[in-house]
Amino acid sequence: MVNKFKCVIGLLLVLPTIVAANVSEYQLDNGLKLIVKEDHRAPVVVTQVWYKVGSSYEYNGITGISHQLEHMMFKGTENLGPNEFSRIIAANGGRENAFTGRDYTAYFQTLEKDRLEVSFRLESERMRKLVIDEAELLKEREVVAEERRMRTEDNPQALVREAFNASAFVNSPYHHPVIGWMSDINNYQAEDLRQWYQKWYAPNNATVVVVGDVKPEAVYQLAKQYFGPLKPEKTALVKPQVEVEQRGKRIIEVKAPAELSYVVMGWKVPVVATVEKEQEWEPYALEMLAGILDGGNSARFARDLVRGDEVAASVGAGYGLFSRLADVFMVVGTPVRGKSVEELQQAIMVQISKLQTDLVDDKELERIKAQVVANAVYERDSVFYQAMQIGMLETVGLDWHLTDSYVEKVQAVTAEQVQAVAKKYFIEQGLTVAELIPMPLDGNKRPIAAGGRHGH
Amino acid sequence: MVTRLFGIVITLLIAVTVQAGPNIEHWQTTNGGRVYFVDAPELAMVDITVVFDAGAARDGDLSGTALLTNAMLNEGAGNLNADQIAAAFEDVGAQFSNSSQRDMAILSMRTLTAESAFEPALQVFKKVLTKPDFPQASFERLKKQMLIGLQAKKQSPAAVASRAFYSNLFGDHPYAAMPAGDEQSVNQLSLASLKAFYKDYYVASNAIVVLVGAIESQQAKDIAQQLLSDLPTGEKPEPLPKVAQLANAKTVTIEHPSSQTHVLMGQPGISRRDSDYFALYVGNHILGGSGLVSQLSNEIREKRGLSYSVYSYFRPMHEKGPYQFGLQTRNDQAQEALKVMQETLQKFITNGPTEEELLAAKQNITGGFALRVDSNSKIADYLAMIGFYDLPLDYLETFKAKVNAVTVAQIKEAYSRRVQADKMITVLVGGKAE
Q1: Which of A115, A334, A381 sits opposite B377 (nearest CB)?
Q2: CB under 8 Å to B265, separation ≥6 — which residues?
Q3: What are the percentages of helix, strand and coil residues in chain B, rounded to 5?
Q4: Which pLDDT tens digit goes with each residue over B299-348?
Q5: How many CB pairs under 8 A join A and B?
Q6: Which residues of B touch A443 (CB under 8 A)?
Q7: How is residue B250 annotated by DSSP?
Q8: Residues of chain A positioned with their CB less than 8 A from the CB of B364
Q9: Hey, are the CB atoms on B360 and A91 less than 8 Å from each other?
Q10: B82 part of contact set with chain A, CB < 8 Å
Q11: Are residues B43 and B137 in the same domain?
């Protein structure tokens, strides 16, 4: 047993050097950042262009506009017709898409390695030369509305999570959904999109990440050729929008057609980007705490709530330590038949208070650490994921080197630190609870009075 | 001498360029398990997957049998309970997963190759595979979980549509049932029937073992041999019955309190070893298989803004899997979207693709071939497919050439012979137009 961990730790010490050695970082004169990571396992290359803009940059009335703009980025530029971008990538054997989050909008292409130029040529074109056509926008607004119906309106659990965020966050822009409120989607004007594009899509607000079978210097030259001539923009100062202090537990209900009940609990917590220097270990302790509760099938939730007490049909914990603004530590779950949401919540709270009163034992800590070390190897099986990590960290205002120090910092977390963050942050004052009240699927307007469910 | 050397150099170059896919080694264990191995030395990890012909197609009268059997394996094995099994994997950072679909029942593990991690992970993986205890308490719990899973599906219009689609498409063929079963069948499952299912189907001659990772060939041989050594040779199951073509078109409408209607349309498609595979695969790539640049996406999403996602795909299985078309749109637009989808298909059957479209599709498929095998996990998936469906070992090697050989005439001919636009199952699940 002792031997095993020695070996695992040995691996850890070697790992960061290997990982860091093959990453090159450049900045063009216009402010564009280029990060190249060599991975010569397969003759492929992934390009990701990350912009510092997402739903957390938006304000009321135009929520979701970053996501709508992401859609419009495929709809034509000064030199490309609608959808031509996608057709050129396809003809080059590439796969491409884009995604929008709270803190970023990113575009990617995966290609065979000798086609990198295709992606740079096209991405540099749409970085500054997008054309927002009125008619195209009207159609694409409908597509986004359909996307929202599919993801949110017709998904009871997504409705609960959306309502949860809108309650947990009062003035933080994490209040509103990434896809935006339907009423905002239905009312975007071409001029709104043009302004949003003009403001945020510029080389000095972008990070280009390239991972694959490439030579960094050649990638740099190619970047200078295509992105170099682009004019920087005077980017707007982002307001801090620091969430007001929560002064008591918030409880909400969401009624929607559903078969199963569902609950979301979330506590206000700091993240790497928001902690003071002296508390910089705290996000890693929270990460460890998430692992203790839900890091695999041996973790406490699966072991004690799903198998042991048989109170949860499913239960999970989620915490992302690399967001731009302070966030919540979320626990979501569905009770088994015959158990109520209250009983599930109580069982979750028992788990939380155990973390507050008892030190986590070494074996559990070591298990999570072993997983973190192993995952750092497994993640390297995907060029896409490696690029994601780098791009996301850079774009939320952190440093891509954190991908390497992450393992060390989780390794350094002690049982006392897990207990300390459990005591400090899992308090009623910072808690928001959202519960799904299932309504009959046949359109009956009365809540289902099934055994084990409850009415307030 | 010079000439000969030159000759050798040329041969080497050809050997290098022809090598399109990974180098696959294949052999059998002494008890009949078929093993597929690719040496991937770059990362200090290994993926091991064991696949049995023990999916829902083997359920017999009680659907859900295969899935629950598979899910029971890591609930108790070789006198370890579920907690101990989970901890044994995770103590060393290994990841275990099990799943069961219509054709395949799968167990897989990813672990570091450092001996201190690898040996314990392999030992517990072997126990789960060969010495499951089928504890009664776990059986009762997982059965309840399956029933809750069925309830969860009822609140999703996509899942409701999928269930209706398969049941109508496949009639009395085993593919008609959902692997998760239904309330009635799940309630009737017994521990004895699961044990019997395991005994019949989890046998060496019905197993495919896939290994991809930083291990030597001889090591791979030892691991595979050891892994299956406690399984009886057993027998391969009988081939599945053939899937009947649909005699008539049929439309199924199911009311659901959703703002969108989910539309599925299709008919039996192709089997994994189908002689029309490449003509139909490339043809469908153009029609609805290439994402944003497909004909369907162009008509439904780009031109009309009717749906966020619209697609068509063949799901090749042991026997003919579905040829499935799908979209989802605001309730009041469902008929319009369905009509455009039908017309696009009909036009494709009548006219086939243009030479330009075919060229673009070939460029897309072959120009991105390296992307299909750029990670251990993707290679492992291909090996499982090649092994399970008994495809030639050079499947990946010859893939590009076979795609490039497809002609417009072949696509047209294959579509007119194999796809009947007037005999489709159509499922609409959604609310009333407002």
Answers
A1: A381
A2: B324, B325, B326, B338, B341, B342, B424, B425, B426, B427
A3: 50, 20, 30
A4: 999 999 999 999 999 999 999 999 999 999 999 999 999 999 999 999 99
A5: 222
A6: 257
A7: E
A8: 90-91, 93-94
A9: yes
A10: yes
A11: yes
Q: What is the 3-state secondary structure (H, E, C) of B336-387?
A: HHHHHHHHHHHHHHHHCCCHHHHHHHHHHHHHCHHHHCCCHHHHHHHHHHHH
Least Cα separation, residue A304 to chain B (angstroms): 9
The separation between CA A188 and the C-alpha centre of its own chain, rounded to angstroms, equals 25
Q: Give catalytic residue positions of A.
A: 70
Last residue in a domain, options B170, B196, B228: B228
pLDDT exceeds cutoff 70 at A342 = yes
Q: What are phi and psi of B422, to 5 degrees?
A: -90, 5
Does one domain contain both B222 and B265? no
Q: Which residues of B touch A258 (CB under 8 A)?
A: 155
Residue B416 and residue B336 share a domain: yes
Q: What is the rounded distance in angstroms from the CA atom of residue B283 to the CA atom of residue B289?
A: 9
Regarding whether B415 and B381 lie in a shared domain, the answer is yes
Query: Is B112 contained in some domain?
Result: yes
> What average pLDDT does the segment B164-187 reach?
98
Beta partners for B264? Answer: B326, B427
Write out the H or E segment, with its range, that includes residue A237: none
**Total tally of structural domains belonging to chain B:** 2
**Residues B209, B257: one domain?**
no
CATH of the domain at B276: 3.30.830.10
B214 and B284 in a single domain? The answer is: no
Query: How many whole angstroms separate alpha carbon A288 and alpha carbon A279?
Result: 15
Residues of B in contact with A304 (CB under 8 A): none
Residue B177's domain comprises: 21-228
pTM beyond 0.90: the answer is yes
B271: β partners: B317
Please give the structure tokens belonging to residue A394: 């850079």
Residue A248: enclosing H or E segment and its boundaries?
A: none
Mean pLDDT score, B228-255? 97
DSSP letters for A6-45: HHHHHHHHHHHHHHHHTEEEEE-TTS-EEEEEE--SSSEE
Say if B306 is an interface residue toward chain A (CB within 8 Å): yes
Place of tokens 């709809």: A75
- Using CA atoms, how far apart are residues B396 and B386, in angstroms rounded to an integer? 9
Please state the ipTM of this predicted complex. 0.93
Is there a contact between A95 and B120 if contact means CB atoms under 8 Å apart? Answer: no
Average the pLDDT over A382-390 and give the result: 97
